[in-house]
């Protein structure tokens, strides 16, 4: 059981193209060449969908994977092409997939309905694919599900084959593309995988050999790199630059970037030092201001305390003086009143003495006029005090005699 699992794993590894290992195992810092200029071969039959060509990366650098017509895994599925994207200081390949909606493919204009956003080459209807003849090369004798619709492409067709980085497309996913990214996806078919594997082994498809103008730019069916169905590139999409030249440019660009960063860092350091010096001056100024303010506050408080103490002493002296004045006035009034009462008492004493002397003088002449010597008279009894007598009771009435009736 364990041996069969190892054998299955080995088979799966062998079926994966070497280019895929190179794309994910090596950090790629050189951008892919421009997309070549070529025409689309005629669709072989009904049900085939166009998958555009692209630059893949292998052990010997970039190589061209020709565009080709592919049968969809099942009706209703559309192909979202893969794309190169810049991130984490390297270029990475984002694999294409099958789905019910077209997702984000970097904004790269691959042509033939793939203008950078969505797909205008056709649509599914009741299990049949309808081709737009304005962007697809179809034989209307064999394929009847066709229509004509002019495609207005707002994307600049400059043959740029990657997103982000220096000179890349600056597109970002829209809401519909974000939604499509979270739907169920079907990976590339086995025919597509074999097509990439065959291209990786074709020396003529290396960018270093064809300089961006491959002899096999597109094929009628996957893996057919010879015969009537092969279309050669008309021209390279842009001036080809060897990896060495690009490495030198990247190095020069990195040097300029480092120099710019060094200048920016020095300028930032100068600004920082200036800010620190200004902060120091500000702190010193604030300290001096605070010290002066504290001194003024202390002086003001001392002056206020001294003035308050002076006012308190004055108030206390005034209060003490007023209290002493009131006390003196009260004592003088009390002394005057006491002296007046004493004088009144002294004046009243002679009058009392005179009244007591007058009866004695009156009695003396009367006693001297009597012939007989004075006898001692018994003390006169005090007059009987009249007591209140009870009121006399009314006399009882005599009982009346009854008159006898006359006979």
**Cα shape:** elongated
**Low-confidence segments:** 1-25, 364-388, 394-399
* Mean pLDDT score: 80
Cα separation of the termini: 176 Å
> What's the main sheet like?
4 strands, mixed
Number of strands: 14
Structural class: alpha/beta
From the structure above, extract its key features.
407 residues; four-stranded mixed sheet; three-stranded mixed sheet
Tell me about this structure.
This protein has 407 residues and is an alpha/beta fold. The protein folds into two domains: 15-240, no CATH class; 241-357. It is 42% helix and 13% strand. It has six helices and 14 strands. It has a four-stranded mixed β-sheet, with no helix packed on it. A hairpin with a 2-residue loop joins strand 6 (83-87) and strand 7. Residues 1-25, 364-388 and 394-399 have low confidence and may be disordered.
């Amino acid at each position: 059981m364990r041996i069969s699992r190892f054998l299955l794993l080995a088979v799966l590894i062998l079926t994966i193209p070497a280019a895929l290992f190179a794309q994910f195992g090596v950090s790629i810092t050189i951008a892919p060449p421009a997309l070549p200029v070529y025409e689309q071969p005629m669709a072989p039959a009904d049900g085939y969908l166009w998958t555009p060509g692209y630059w893949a990366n292998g052990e010997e650098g970039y190589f061209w994977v020709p565009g080709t017509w592919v049968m969809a895994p099942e009706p209703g599925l559309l192909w979202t092409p893969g794309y190169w994207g810049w991130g984490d200081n390297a270029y990475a390949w984002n694999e294409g997939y099958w789905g019910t909606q077209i997702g984000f493919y970097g904004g790269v204009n691959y042509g033939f309905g793939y203008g950078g956003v969505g797909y205008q080459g056709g649509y599914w209807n009741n299990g049949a694919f309808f081709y737009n003849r304005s962007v697809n090369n179809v034989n209307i004798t064999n394929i009847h599900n066709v229509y004509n619709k002019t495609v207005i492409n707002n994307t600049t067709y400059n043959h740029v084959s990657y997103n982000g980085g220096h000179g890349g497309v600056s597109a970002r996913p829209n809401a519909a593309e974000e939604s499509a990214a979270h739907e169920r996806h079907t990976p590339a078919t086995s025919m597509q995988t074999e097509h990439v594997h065959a291209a990786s082994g074709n020396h003529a498809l290396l960018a270093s050999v064809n300089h961006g103008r491959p002899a096999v730019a597109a094929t009628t069916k996957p893996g057919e790199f010879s015969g009537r169905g092969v279309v050669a590139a008309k021209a390279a999409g842009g001036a080809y630059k060897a990896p060495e030249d690009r490495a030198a440019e990247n190095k020069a660009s990195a040097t300029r970037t480092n120099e710019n960063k060094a200048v920016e860092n020095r300028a930032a350091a100068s600004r920082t030092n200036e800010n620190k010096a200004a902060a120091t001056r500000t702190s010193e100024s604030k300290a001096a201001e605070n010290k002066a303010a504290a001194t003024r506050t202390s002086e003001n408080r001392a002056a206020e305390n001294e003035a308050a103490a002076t006012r308190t002493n004055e108030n206390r002296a005034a209060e003490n003086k007023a209290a002493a004045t009131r006390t003196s006035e009260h004592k003088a009034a009390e002394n005057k009143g006491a002296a007046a009462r004493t004088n009144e008492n002294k004046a009243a004493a002679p009058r009392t003495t005179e009244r007591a002397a007058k009866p004695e003088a009156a009695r003396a002449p009367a006693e001297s006029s009597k012939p007989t010597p004075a006898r001692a008279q018994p003390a006169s009894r005090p007059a009987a005090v009249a007591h209140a007598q009870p009121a006399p009771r009314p006399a009882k009435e005599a009982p009346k005699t009854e008159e006898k009736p006359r006979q």
